[in-house]
Amino acid sequence: MIKVESLTKHRSGTPVLDGVTLAGEAGGVTALVGPSGSGKSTLLRCLNGLECFERGVVSIAGHRLTPGPHSGGVLEALRRDVGMVFQQFNLVPHLSVLDNVTLAPRTVLKNTVAEARSRAIELLDRVGLGSFAAARPATLSGGQQQRVAIARALAMQPQVMLFDEPTSALDPTMTAEVLEVIVDLAKAGQTMVVVTHDHGFAKRAATWVVELAAGKVARQGTAAEML
Ligand SMILES: Nc1ncnc2c1ncn2[C@@H]1O[C@H](COP(=O)(O)OP(=O)(O)O)[C@@H](O)[C@H]1O
Ligand SMILES: [Mg+2]
User: Fold this and answer.
1) What is the pLDDT at residue 214?
2) Rg (Cα) of the chain, in Å, rounded?
3) Residues 6+ apart with CB under 8 A from 157
4) Cα angle at 165 between 46 and 168, to 5 degrees?
5) How many whole angstroms from 197 Cα to the centroid of ligand 1?
6) Residue 214 near residue 38 (C-beta atoms within 8 A)
7) Which ligand 1 atom is nearest residue 42's CA?
8) Which fold, 2-226?
9) Residue 44 vs residues 201, 212, 214: alpha-carbon distances, Å
């Protein structure tokens, strides 16, 4: 489902990713660990085409990304199949929780309002927020907002979900709520890549752990081997 070969990316002449090679199988959960600045976010952003790169190949969910700028068509196709959840939720503030979740299915997948709505309510129930559909994001806790962001990404029924330190802006209680949702997704067989510093979570959820250091894969293995 995911194959990265010799991925190399520079910023201002310095390699940020330096020959990264890794693979993730369908239904697998890859935890991406490593110190701050090691290139984890950049790697994740390369996986969904948010960044371009100079060398190597990324294959993900049947799409292939090559060096240089990505065409609009490639990115549009990729975004349908690869969902991303950011540190800072990035919900649309003036839209209700429900409208945040239905927006992409309505505009990108051309779902009807009724289809998008019933699926969104199902997903909000799944993340424990069924009664918050009409609320504005700002009235929710950070943990609730992040669970809405997860529902929003799932609404596209992505083949792969990418999470960049999804709980780093949250207190321990909210962190636990969000990790529970991600562990449930893992159990349901969702293919995921999760950047995390939480080794306890990685042990519970990850089938494979990749450790980056200074833009290179320092080690990789099963959670039992690595953590
Ligand atoms: N927008 C940017 N411009 C220049 N350098 C950046 C930018 N974003 C990240 N970097 C640098 O790229 C390297 C990897 O960053 P990042 O992928 O964010 O690492 P991580 O997510 O592991 O903390 C770091 O040295 C960081 O300083
Ligand atoms: Mg980061």
Assistant:
1) 97
2) 17
3) none
4) 150
5) 16
6) yes
7) 17
8) Rossmann fold (3.40.50)
9) 19, 12, 15
Ligand 1, atom 18: closest residue by C-alpha: 41
- Residue of 12, 153, 27, 154 lying closest to 90 (CA atoms): 153
Determine which residue's CA is closest to atom 6 belonging to ligand 1: 11
For the CA of 12, the closest atom of ligand 1 is 4
Q: Which residues, judged by CB distance below 6 Å to any ligand atom, belong to the binding site of ligand 1?
A: 11, 16, 34, 36-42
pLDDT in tens, 76-104: 999 999 999 999 999 999 999 999 999 99
Q: State the Cα–Cα distance between residues 201 and 180, nearest whole angstrom.
A: 9
- For residue range 203-221, list pLDDT tens digits in order: 999 999 999 999 999 999 9
Neighbours of 189 (CB within 10 A): 11
